[in-house]
């Protein structure tokens, strides 16, 4: 059986990434592709428990390296329990976030260093890199405006604009470093427009 493929969606908070990646998973399933949708942090029972600790707004005392290690731990568990079995069954795995989120948020925005964070993630993923990463590009200010309508904001959503600007800058650096594997889409368009563009691109490459 042909192996499956890991497709990752990345973007700043408020980029529409979750809505777009879910809609695309539904459309691909309806078109007959064997698809599973999953997300990080989380995506398996244990990984979702770790997500709860990381994003709990009460955990203001969390050290940045603890945070980086927890994301990597959650990713490892997600990979082993969810991603690898699906890939072995020939499925297309659509993951809302993966390693690049850690390189950007922990490595760049939290200033641990992209290379240091890459090291712990390389340990966690053992070479399971995405087949392709879809980056949804949005101005961080516009992204934050979109978050205002949400009822629940997690610990990271509550960060100030300066942090989200750093995240945007970090993505520019990481996207440039891994440009051969990343496709960038303008996420300031409406959700249906973005879905259409990304869907048409994905059916060509999977
Ligand atoms: P979400 O809003 O896409 O569900 O992600 C939750 C938050 O976690 C978001 O602000 C980005 C952040 N995050 C990291 O800081 N590092 C990571 O490795 C991942 C996967 C997410």
Mean pLDDT: 95
Structural class: alpha/beta
| Helical run tally | 8
Helix content: 40-55%
Largest sheet: 5 strands, parallel
Q: Name the beta content range.
A: 5-15%
Estimate the global geometry from the Cα principal axes: globular
Unique bound compounds: thymidine-5'-phosphate
Distance between the termini: 15 Å
The ordered H/E elements are EHEHHEHHEHHEH
Number of beta-strand segments: 5
Which stretches of 5+ consecutive residues score pLDDT under 50? none
Strand ordering within the main sheet: 2-3-1-4-5
Radius of gyration: 16 Å
What layout of secondary structure does this protein have?
Blueprint: E1 5-11, H1 17-30, E2 35-39, H2 45-55, H3 64-88, E3 92-96, H4 99-109, H5 114-125, E4 132-137, H6 140-147, H7 161-177, E5 182-186, H8 191-205
Parallel strand pairs: 1-3, 1-4, 2-3, 4-5
Thymidine-5'-phosphate (TMP) binds next to helix 4.
